[in-house]
Amino acid sequence: MKKLILTVAALALSTGFAMADTVRMGTEGAYPPYNFINDKGEVDGFERELGDTLCTKAGLTCEWVTNEWDSIIPNLLSGNYDTIIAGMSITDERKETIDFTQNYYPPAASAYAALSEGADLKGVIAAQVGTIQADYVAKSGATLLEFATLDDTIAAVKNGEADAVFADKDALAPFVTEGGDLKWEGDDVPLGGGIGIGLRKSDTELKGKFDAVITEMKADGSLNALIVKWFGDDAATF
Q1: What class does CATH assign to 109-190?
Q2: How far lies 215's CA from each of 9, 105, 107, 223, in Å?
Q3: Ranges in the chain annotated CATH 3.40.190.10
Q4: Cα separation of 208 and 195, whole Å?
Q5: pLDDT of residue 1
Q6: Closest to 173 in 3D by CA, of 112, 227, 222
Q7: 108-146 burial code (b ≥16 CB/10 A, e <16)
Q8: What distance lies between CA 57 and its chain's CA centroid?
Q9: Residue 73: CA atoms inside 13 Å, Cβ hemisphere, count?
Q10: What is the pLDDT confidence band of residue 180, given thresholds at 50, 70 and 90?
Q11: How many Å apart are CA 181 and CA 112, to the nearest integer?
Q12: pTM for this model (two decimals)
């Protein structure tokens, strides 16, 4: 699903997680319903509930750390946290720099939304910086207008800076409601290989622990139940 970091410094450290009891879970906190900050000022959303469940089942303690999206991979590599669990799509380019668990959310659609039908999808398209959607727009022949957050891309369409926004359909859905300002435009576009937890390549033991729990949750149906809880009955499931 979400996001392709196009420029990442070669920051990989020689030391890894070393399997301490506490795992620092890095997220953006600005991409509902995947992750967001609730009224109590705490990380919330699908990935918060999933991450806490994974840590409990793996016998680990989660600590949640927020980081801006455009530097989320460099700060993982420099040791500011131990994982990225932030709606990050598994891509070959990212795998050159970091490792991933198996996907905990299946490949799903990206989509365009605009103020009215007939929007020019080869015109100016807003997308969040460093995402697979931004990369797609840049290669589509449209003019890419990048913003730091999803909310900023929505605002750009509403104030006339952009003809449409292109993002994960699940993330856009709350903004495209009956009677709302935005409407779906054009066809859905499948991108990415699903969403996984990003880790440093040296942290193979931590990856193995999380992979084992994700496999268990896929088999017993609890992962699908969590997806439906946060994304609705029409969400892609395993």
Answers
A1: alpha beta
A2: 32, 12, 16, 9
A3: 22-106+193-231, 109-190
A4: 16
A5: 52
A6: 112
A7: bebbbbbeeeebebeebbbbbbbbbbbbbbeeeebebbb
A8: 23
A9: 27
A10: confident
A11: 13
A12: 0.83
